[in-house]
Design brief:
about 100 residues, about 70% helix
Length: about 100
């Protein structure tokens, strides 16, 4: 009963339901960060383009992102992540072709 008396059990009980969502959000944001770094590399690279490395990195990110389990309330975050993957892929192909990416960024 000491836990109830000093008020530590109520905050813990309120925090527990948020734990799975918080972990899923962390995994999604991790891949957003990886994509942002890759996108910046694609945009700023000078000289010979490492297209193969970029595509391999993107495939690794896409594979990992496709296995992230998110709650239904975060389904739009997962969808947005897949859209971002597609945008980075288009940017890589545009650099390979020497054109600007679709959507002009």
């Amino acid at each position: 009963m000491a836990l109830r008396e000093n008020g530590t059990i109520a905050p813990l009980i309120n925090w527990l339901p948020e734990l799975p969502r918080s972990r899923a959000r962390s995994r999604v944001y991790r891949w957003y960060g990886e994509l942002a770094l890759l996108e910046r590399d694609v945009e700023r690279w000078q000289g010979d383009l490492p297209i193969g490395r970029w595509l391999a990195d993107l495939d690794r990110i896409e594979h990992a992102a496709s296995h992230i389990r998110v709650p239904k309330s975060m389904a739009s975050d997962g969808c947005a992540l897949r859209e971002y993957i597609g945008r980075v892929r288009r940017a890589i192909f545009a650099r390979r072709e020497g054109t600007s990416p679709i959507g002009g960024r």
